[in-house]
């Protein structure tokens, strides 16, 4: 199977099985020069957080807690599921409850090619892991988002939200420290976006662009 793998230090607090998920990032290393940085850099993995912007790696082998192992960051691999694939779901995302496992979804970090149930009842999906399509829900500030002026997009700091799949509640998306956060959302329309409105924004390159506004 074609895929890109990395060595990752499991700092999730528990042993991780093949197909389980880690949220990965760089640990501090030498910054004397680029050669020392390359030699000393280490990728660490913790348990993902549901509804957050995780950098997902899928364990390619069992990785004991506190030890290093191989994980997939792009390409084909088996992803461990918390529950069976739902009808019409073609992707996997972080499960809401067991965040080191995946759940089938309408979009996510991996496209489902097939699924399998092992003799021990463990569920897996064969997935093509890639960059997640980023379409997110926001609430605009009281002043809204200004209209585009000529060739300059309007922008404002908006608060991200998500919809709880169990209750349907529109819930504020907190940062990794559990605090409120805002992200800059751009408006390319000739009309302003209303204040305190729920909008949908999609990632285009390195920026978020308003794509849908609550017209109610």
Describe this entry's structure for a reader.
- The protein is mainly beta.
- The protein is built from one helix and 15 strands.
- The longest helix has 7 residues.
- The model has no long low-confidence stretch (mean pLDDT 88).
Quick structural summary:
The chain is mostly beta strands. The chain is 3% helix and 45% strand. Strand 8 (110-117) and strand 9 form a beta hairpin.
Shape: globular
**Strand tally, please?**
15
* Number of discrete domains: 2
SSE sequence, one letter per element: EEHEEEEEEEEEEEEE
Could you list some keywords that capture this structure?
mainly beta; 216 residues; OB fold (Dihydrolipoamide Acetyltransferase, E2P); Virus Head Decoration Protein, Chain: A; 5-stranded mixed β-barrel; 5-stranded mixed beta barrel; 3% helix; 2 domains; single chain
List the helices and strands and how they pair.
Blueprint: E1 3-10, E2 21-27, H1 34-40, E3 42-46, E4 56-59, E5 68-81, E6 91-94, E7 102-105, E8 110-117, E9 123-129, E10 135-139, E11 154-163, E12 170-172, E13 183-187, E14 198-204, E15 207-213
Parallel strand pairs: 1-3, 13-15
Antiparallel strand pairs: 1-5, 2-3, 2-4, 4-5, 5-9, 6-7, 6-8, 8-9, 10-11, 10-14, 11-12, 11-13, 14-15
């Amino acid at each position: 199977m074609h895929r890109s793998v990395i060595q990752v230090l499991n700092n999730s607090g528990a042993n991780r099985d093949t197909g389980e998920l880690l949220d990965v990032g760089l640990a501090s290393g030498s910054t004397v020069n680029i050669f020392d940085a390359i030699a000393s850099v280490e990728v660490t993995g913790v348990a993902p957080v549901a509804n957050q912007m995780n950098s997902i790696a899928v364990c390619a082998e069992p990785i004991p807690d506190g030890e290093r192992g191989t994980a997939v960051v792009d390409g084909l691999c088996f992803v461990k599921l918390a529950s069976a694939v739902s009808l019409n779901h073609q992707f996997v995302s972080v499960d809401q409850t067991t965040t080191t496992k995946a759940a089938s979804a309408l979009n996510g970090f991996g496209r489902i090619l097939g699924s399998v149930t092992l003799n021990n009842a463990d569920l897996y999906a064969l997935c093509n892991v890639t960059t997640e399509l980023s379409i997110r829900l926001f609430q605009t500030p009281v002043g809204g988002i200004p209209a585009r002026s000529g060739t300059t997009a309007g922008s404002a700091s908006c608060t991200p939200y998500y919809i709880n799949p169990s209750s349907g509640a529109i819930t504020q998306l907190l940062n990794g420290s559990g605090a409120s956060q805002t992200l800059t959302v751009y408006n390319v329309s000739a009309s302003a976006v209303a204040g305190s409105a729920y909008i949908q924004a999609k990632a285009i390159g390195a920026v978020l662009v308003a794509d849908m506004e609550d017209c109610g």
